[in-house]
Write the structure tokens for this entry.
Amino acid sequence: MRQTENIYLVGPMGAGKTTIGRRLAELKHLEFIDADHEIEARTGVDIPFIFEKEGEAGFRKREHDVIAELTKMKGIVLATGGGAVLDADNRRRLASNGLVVYLHTTVDEQLNRTRHSKKRPLLQTANPRERLESLLAERDPLYREIADLIITTRGRYVRRLAQQVLKEIDSYQAQA
């Protein structure tokens, strides 16, 4: 069994990693950290600005460094960015330092949850649906590769989802 001192949430944008992560951290009495917010706090600029100035590669380097540091911590719930799993080192660190929960959702749900956001550089395209489908096709196998638990977030309330994640974690621990 993997350690459950840390809980790492992975999944696509709009899956609810930040919202569910905050509530889960409260329920587990753990510290909540959002990797994207941590990058913004350290750089003093938002992620769209980083993408604009450094491109996706520059952002991914920053993300790699933050995840390397955060996975050394104990007692946290970490919401990762949707693309964090693209980096093999990130996947290794997440999988070996805590329990990984893949919050799975549909492209329709992602579109619904992200349609008004201007802070998602990968969706600033003529066809957001096509982009989300492409990202999910690329990333879903990587999320599944490291996931201890897979929970579908479609059409559910945060409180119920956080309670379900907590229940699944407790069940997972009990089986060990």
The two ends are 6 Å apart (CA to CA). The beta strands are 7-10, 31-34, 76-79, 99-104, 149-152. Helices lie at 17-28, 35-43, 47-70, 88-97, 107-114, 128-146, 158-175.
